[in-house]
């Protein structure tokens, strides 16, 4: 089994371009990462890359608006998460 990438690693994010990750999702990578072409269209692949970016350091947002429901919903959840995080910090005095 190849090493599954550590999506929380800043170095991993820095060394992998959005376009490269979109291609890996659509075409597969190595022997175990399956190709999702046919099940996932390029717009959704782009949103999945944006999702993978949320595990990395802040400020890595994929540029341009999302064109799928998944992307819109993910953006809403991300905003809610940031608001809850802000409230939790305010309550704990940090
Ligand atoms: C829609 C679901 C999935 C998404 C969005 C996804 C996303 C990714 C991404 C972005 C990478 C990094 C590719 C790169 O370095 O260029 C990756 C690698 C990998 N994924 Fe997935 N993945 C998915 C499902 C799966 C599944 C179901 C498996 C296993 C059965 C899997 C196994 C792997 C493995 C083994 C790698 C490392 C490949 C290598 O570097 O040789 N992934 N995945």
Strand and helix layout:
Elements: H1 10-14, H2 18-27, H3 42-53, H4 69-92
Helix pairs in contact: 2-3
The structure holds protoporphyrin IX containing FE (HEM).
Notable characteristics:
94 residues, mainly alpha, 54% helix, globular, binds protoporphyrin IX containing FE
What can you see in these coordinates?
- The structure is a single chain.
- The chain is mainly alpha-helical.
- The protein has one domain (10-92).
- Helix content is 54%, strand content 0%.
- It has helices at residues 10-14, 18-27, 42-53, 69-92.
- Helix 2 crosses helix 3.
- The radius of gyration is 15 Å and the shape is globular.
- The N and C termini lie far apart (42 Å).
- The mean pLDDT is 89.
- Bound molecules: protoporphyrin IX containing FE (HEM).
- Residues 2, 4-5, 16, 20-21, 24-25, 29-30, 32-34, 36, 48, 52 line the site of protoporphyrin IX containing FE.
| Biggest beta sheet summary | none
- Termini Cα gap: 42 Å
Compute the number of helices. Answer: 4
Spans of at least 5 consecutive residues with low confidence: none
* Helix fraction bin: 40-55%
Question: What's the shape?
Answer: globular
Number of domains: 1
How large is the share of residues in beta strands? Answer: under 5%
Summarize it.
With 94 residues, the protein is mostly helical.
């Amino acid at each position: 089994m190849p090493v599954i990438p550590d999506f929380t690693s800043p170095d991993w994010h820095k060394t992998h371009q959005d376009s490269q990750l979109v291609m890996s999702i659509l075409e597969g990578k190595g022997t175990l990462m399956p190709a999702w072409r046919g099940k996932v269209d390029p717009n959704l692949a782009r949103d999945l890359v944006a999702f993978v970016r949320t595990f990395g350091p802040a400020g890595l947002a994929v540029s341009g608006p999302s064109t799928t429901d998944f992307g819109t919903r993910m953006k809403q959840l991300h905003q809610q998460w940031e608001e809850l995080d802000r409230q939790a910090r305010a309550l704990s005095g940090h």
